Each structure stands twice: as structure tokens, then as C-alpha cells.
Amino acid sequence: MRIFALSDIHVDYEVNTQWVASLSHDDYVDDVLILAGDVSDSMARLEWCLGQFAMRFKKVLFIPGNHDVWVIRGGPYVDSLDKFHRVCEVAGQSGVSMAPYHHRDVSIVPLLGWYDFSFGLPDADLQRSWMDFRACRWPGSWTVGDVTSHFLQMNGYRRRDDTETIISFSHFMPRIDLMPQSVSEQTRRLFPVLGSERLQLQVQQLRSVIHVYGHSHLNRREQRGGTLYVNNAYGYPSETRIAAKTLYCVHEIS
Ligand SMILES: [Fe+2]
Ligand SMILES: [Fe+2]
């Protein structure tokens, strides 16, 4: 049984949709897919895409990304929390799971999250241009820190014993040092909205051997301590240099 990782499939783009539709119906029937968020803000496209993966893989483990909880199209949705719950429902109906999955001594654990500016404060330009600030709506006067707290407290899984091999996954980045030193100034300005240091505390607590993340769209395999951090985002059509645009096998159980 192989465990594949993919994130940021963004099926709003026709070329991405075609890639999903072109995947083999035979090659992955014994395999697990970790799908780490940013499928589409369109519920119909999300449902289609989850269904496509569910019919090809033995098991699909999914976690929503920021795009999946945008509330500017479709609906009506009360807010992004309402959208999140509707996405969870659609995931269940489409045959994909958002719960921890166990196979022999391996556990695959989803970690919800958001960004909380722990990687830096947004400048005026990011405040103006970051789409989530307009496309997401949260209850009352929630700050991004409150959104992060809300999702992090939903991650209740605890390591069972020392023999358990844990592969965790999140949409957001658990640590900013996974970004290369050489990134452009423009990319560096996005750091505040990439993830949360508090998410890393949960990865540490689980002692994950592998952590799959998305959101940055920058494909990486980086070892930090006992954890291999993997990004295998499919990304936007223009992102041909930073995304391999193929499934990546993170682990195999013989
Ligand atoms: Fe994305
Ligand atoms: Fe994202």
C-alpha cells in the first residue's frame, strides 16, 4: 500500500481538472491519497474532484484549505465556518475522510489550522491584496489568531505509543523555515499568511515522521529533526517551475 501526497489541486483551472480526470482508474486501487486542501471554492467542483479521487484510491484523506472556505461564490453561506461544515459534509458524501486513518503501525493524522501572523505581520500591501481577507468571513470579531485557535483545538488525536508511525498533514505551513532563504521579496511578504508556529507544536507532539503540507505551492522535501516535511502542491497552471504536477509517494507499507 502506497501513501501519496497532493495539495492545491485548484480545479477551477481547466488544465488541472483534465489532469485529475486523466488519472488511472486501476493504478491506485490499493493506495491512500493525502489531499491537503485548496481544491476549489466552488462546492460543485469540490464535490466532483473529491469524487474523482475517491473512485480511484482505496482511501482519500482530505483537509480543507483556505480557498475551500471562501464565501464569495455560491451559497449562501452564513460565514466561512458554515462553509467549512458544508465542505465537511460534501467530503463525507463524496467518500473521502477527514478522520485519522490507521493501517498496521502507521497512522495518518489530519491537522486543521489557519495562519495567525506568527511568521510575521502583514504589510499594508498584503492587507489590501490577500484574497482571504475579502473572500472569507468569520463569526463576530474573530481575528486570524482566533480562527487558528478554533481549528487547532479540533485536532484531538494523541500518539498511542512509541511504536506508532505517524504521518500528519495540514494545508498550512507548520514552520516558516521550510521556505528557502533565496525566495523573492514578493514571496517573503506572504510569510504572515502561510501558517502558524502553533501548528508545529502539534506536529512535535505527534512526533510525526512525515508531515505533508500545502498552501505555499512550493514543492519541497525538507528534513527537520525527526520529521520529513513534504510539499507536493499541484498549483496554478503557471507554476511549472515550483510544482512537479504529479502524485508523490511519501511512504510505502509492504
Ligand atoms: Fe493553494
Ligand atoms: Fe492555500
Draw up the topology in text:
Layout: E1 2-6, H1 14-22, E2 32-35, H2 43-54, E3 59-62, H3 80-94, E4 101-103, E5 106-110, H4 124-129, H5 132-135, H6 144-152, E6 165-169, H7 185-188, H8 197-206, E7 210-213, E8 220-224, E9 227-231, E10 248-252
Parallel strand pairs: 1-2, 2-3, 5-6, 6-7, 7-9
Antiparallel strand pairs: 1-10, 4-5, 8-9
Helix pairs in contact: 2-3
This protein binds fe (ii) ion (2 copies).
Condensed summary:
With 254 residues, the chain is an alpha/beta fold. Helix content is 27%, strand content 18%.
Give your account of this protein's structure:
With 254 residues, this protein is of the alpha/beta class. It has one domain: Purple Acid Phosphatase, chain A, domain 2 (4-Layer Sandwich). The chain has eight helices and ten strands. The protein has helices spanning 14-22, 43-54, 80-94, 124-129, 132-135, 144-152, 185-188, 197-206, and strands at 2-6, 32-35, 59-62, 101-103, 106-110, 165-169, 210-213, 220-224, 227-231, 248-252. The strands form two sheets. A six-stranded mixed beta sheet has the order 4-5-6-7-9-8, with no helix packed on it. A four-stranded mixed beta sheet has the order 3-2-1-10, covered by helices on one side. Helix 2 (43-54) links the parallel strand 2 and strand 3 (59-62). The radius of gyration is 17 Å and the shape is globular. 40% of the residues are buried. The mean pLDDT is 97. Bound molecules: fe (ii) ion (2 copies).
